[in-house]
């Protein structure tokens, strides 16, 4: 007899796959697809931040810079040499990954909020380079005329077709991230995040994994950058300012720091909310600030943390939830008498 | 086994350890005794590679280790039970033990050693899947000791293992340390609880303000009038 939970899971997967594949066909208009495409890129950025910050504790506000490195790599290679996205994607990921590793070197010397300051400074440096080195980047004018990709002679020339490319990248990005967090690297990240001294005492080479975490964040953001450049066909430095890092930080915190599902909740949820609340203009920054404060103060696990708490207190099992590792009863009465 | 030669360790400008020398002999318990700020923890951290001495040397079986990073020192066989236990709160008990075996790759042996740990520390038995953060203080201390043993150390360095535990548990921790030593483990024990430590130790090193004040076998220290007055609470 088959386990009913496997059947239920299968049904969920089937419904999910169908919805994902059919989305551009049933979407009311191209603009909606564009929003979802951007959300896909934000999910990639958020996954990168989540691995570095949520799992390894490396506060990193230089994401916009990594994103920009990927986008500018693709834009320059494409407009000057006609390099297609399929080649730009790995190159942009490697470039941004190297920048992530280099940025991590000065980060090793500092902790917590100083880490945030160092990364803001480094991100600003890269942004100033993008603005001022006009011989290379054309400065604030940006770079236009980036080609949309073709695959086997089919032009991926609109948001609807690009959607499938982004979907594929997000799925691959998620599966890779899941492998990372479930295995040795993820275990090392969590150990460093929770107690760096204890992690070192266990034999974890903390410096190596901290550099690796930031480099992985760079790779994810680099991929998002390359996709963004080829999707938008035009890029300019203002997209990659500090504001974008704050945006990704907000969505990851609200979704759930330290949970890959949180990146999906935040990455989809925040752009959609933003669309619904269009017209509030710069007040959105105030909104991010308030959202971050509320989450940090009251819901440290974000939306995912809330669903987990509900699950533990009510016994409801969400279809995507893993088996709880602690029985609530154990949490309530720890054995104080000891052995 | 370990010889510490005239080490000087600083926290920034603060000169915490001012030239300490001693030997940890194979198969023995060596107790580092002293008040708060005497330099016990600093000495242990320096041996484990979490801090580096500005002067002096530390030799493990004759090979210098004082310039190595902590992860390399662990690989060479120095396991640490850190001050304040420092188990990984969001990992399960089982995963904490896996972290202890971090640098080992012999999966079959690791599984065997883990099973052994649950035998040695019955407090952990049946709690394999429980988050370490939800254990009581005493259980966390057992887990911290088990976790350090999972690295198969030649020397087990323990930093204040009795700190913050109920008297009954303190007694139990000292029993466990003595048991481990009976089974052949060499132990370096830093303790404020001088009475308990000197009862199970072979030799004692008394530190005061970053210097060695006394170094002798534990029995002599126990009968030393100055030590009795300052550390053992005798009139």
Tell me the CATH topology of one domain in chain B: Rossmann fold
Number of helices of chain A: 15
Strand content of chain A: under 5%
Name of the CATH class of one domain in chain B = Alpha Beta
Radius of gyration of chain B: 17 Å
Average pLDDT metric of chain B: 92
Helix residue percentage of chain A: over 70%
- Distance separating the two termini of chain A: 43 Å
Number of strands of chain A: 4
Look at the structure and give the mean pLDDT of chain A: 85
| Spatial strand order of the main sheet of chain B | 6-7-8-3-9-10
The end-to-end distance of chain B, rounded to whole angstroms, is 37 Å
- Which protein chains are joined by the largest interface, and how many residues does each one contribute? A-B, 28 and 43 residues
Explained architecture:
The complex is a heterodimer of chains A (339) and B (235). With 339 residues, chain A is mostly helical. Chain A has a domain at 30-242. In chain A, 73% of the residues lie in helices and 2% in strands. Chain A has helices spanning 4-26, 30-55, 63-81, 85-107, 112-132, 134-137, 159-182, 184-194, 196-201, 206-232, 242-255, 260-276, 283-298, 302-314, 328-332; strands spanning 143-144, 150-151, 154-155, 234-235. In chain A, the strands form two sheets. In chain A, strands 1-4 form a two-stranded antiparallel ribbon. Chain A has a two-stranded antiparallel sheet with strand order 2-3. The longest helix of chain A is centred in the middle third of the chain and has 27 residues, at 206-232. Chain B is of the alpha/beta class and 235 residues long. Chain B has a domain at 2-85 and 151-230: Rossmann fold (3-Layer(aba) Sandwich), CATH 3.40.50. Helix content of chain B is 36%, strand content 26%. Chain B has helices at 40-48, 70-75, 93-100, 107-120, 137-149, 167-182, 194-200, 218-223, 225-230; strands spanning 2-11, 14-24, 29-33, 55-60, 63-64, 78-81, 155-159, 186-191, 203-208, 211-217. Chain B has a six-stranded mixed sheet, sandwiched between helices. A four-stranded antiparallel sheet of chain B has the order 2-1-4-5, with helices on one face. In chain B, helix 3 (93-100) runs parallel beside helix 5. The termini of chain B are far apart. The mean pLDDT of chain B is 92. The A-B interface holds A 187-188, 190-191, 194-195, 197-207, 325-327, 330-331, 334-339 and B 48-50, 69-71, 74-75, 80, 82, 86-92, 95, 98-100, 102-103, 121-123, 129-131, 134-139, 142, 147-148, 151, 166, 168-169, 172.
